[in-house]
Structures are given as C-alpha cells and as structure tokens.
Design brief:
eight-stranded mixed sheet, single chain, alpha+beta, 2 helices
Length: 169
C-alpha cells in the first residue's frame, strides 16, 4: 500500500452514543452513503475529522495551544451528521487506518450519552437505528465497531473496563 505523506495523519473521531431505554442500553448506529469512498453502505457510528476551523478562530487555552479541540470537533460532527447533542464524552480507544487514497488516519473512539435532539441525516448518512449490543450483531458494521459497542456496554454495566482483544487474522 502506498502512503502519501509518511509523517502526516488525518485525525478522525467517532462517538458511540448511548441511552438507556426500559433498563437497557441502546446505541446509535448509522448507515453510510453508498457514495462514500471508504466503507460505502456499511453501518458505523457518527464521527468525522478534525478541521482547523474547530480551533483556529477561538481563544487559545495557553499562549501557544488550544485544548479540547478533538472533543469540540466530535460534538460538531455529531450535530452535523445526525443532529444530536451529546453529554460528556469519554475516551475509549485509538486506531490507525490507511484510507483508500493513501492517507493515514488516526481514529479516536469515544463514548457519550445522548443529550437531546431528533435524528436527522446529513448527505453522508442514509439510515439509523438505536440497537442493543446484541442487536448490533445483525447489522453489516464496519470492522471493529461491534467490539467497541461491546466494550462500552460492559463499561456502562460496570462489568469490565479492560480493553477488548481483537482477533488477529
């Protein structure tokens, strides 16, 4: 695989959004447009990339730095993609993905509670469902999303805070 820029990475983040319904945790999954370059038509969770505009025109936290830019961008992406507001986001894990165009992407996965709003789609989303961790198995999810939902489900139930070990192929 050819890597375009060996020292530069795109930074993306995803949100595993949850809410408790009749004593059971449900998670928002969305179906990607069939026009997307990466994973067309597959199911995933909301998210997207950090943009310079997420911080450049805001006051710096210190003389030289902006803090919480990733979290701010994730709140923006969730609002843009599915029209929802979410509560406090918590870090789950990170991963690396080489996009079809050869650009390496760092993906930071977070989880957060649903706060408000009614789901509405942007141009990149064509469907959604609120599912339990068990029901998520019935969807054609991007690789790893099912395991991440499972991790969050265990964390929320206080069962296990250990990381999932992914199967090596």
């Amino acid at each position: 695989m050819k890597i375009k820029y060996r020292e530069l990475h795109r930074i993306d983040s995803t949100a595993i959004i949850y809410k408790k319904v009749e004593g059971e945790y449900k998670y928002l999954i969305t179906q990607r447009s069939f026009d997307k370059k990466a994973f067309p038509g597959l199911w995933t969770v909301p998210g997207g990339g950090l943009e310079v505009d997420d911080y450049i025109n805001t006051k710096k936290t210190t003389k030289d730095h902006w803090y919480f830019a990733i979290e701010k961008s994730l709140h923006r992406e969730v609002k843009e993609e599915v029209n929802l507001a979410v509560g406090k986001i918590d870090y789950l894990l990170d991963m690396i993905f080489i996009r079809p165009d050869g650009i390496p992407a760092i993906i930071l996965s977070w989880y957060c509670p649903y706060k408000s709003g009614k789901v509405k789609y942007d141009k990149d989303t064509i469907n959604h469902a609120w599912v339990t961790a068990k029901q998520a198995k019935e969807y054609n999810l991007i690789e790893g999303i099912l395991e991440e939902i499972g991790m969050v489900n265990k964390i929320l139930k206080g069962q296990n805070k250990n990381r999932v070990k992914f199967n090596k192929k």
